[in-house]
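Q: Focus on the shape:
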Amino acid sequence: MPRRQTFGWAWRVPCVITVSLIAAGATGNQLTRGLVGYEPLERLYAGLFGSLAVGLLLLVAGLLAPDADAMAGRLGAGLLLLGLTLGLLT
């Protein structure tokens, strides 16, 4: 039985890193600019730590996925939840 060609680590790691960095940047930007009524330093810290948390969460979830389908599903679900959460916060 021939071995099935899979979406290997050489492509998984750059994809996951790219998605997590884009999501972290968008989260930081949205939290820093969108939290109206808070002090500027509080908004800066919220953006910094929020983006760090989102980036690490997506990075770990994507790298621990057993295959490419699970990786795409986890990253897509994470981005959907992130969009909904940021939409409700701001």
About this structure: The radius of gyration is 16 Å. The CA atoms of residues 30 and 87 lie 9 Å apart.
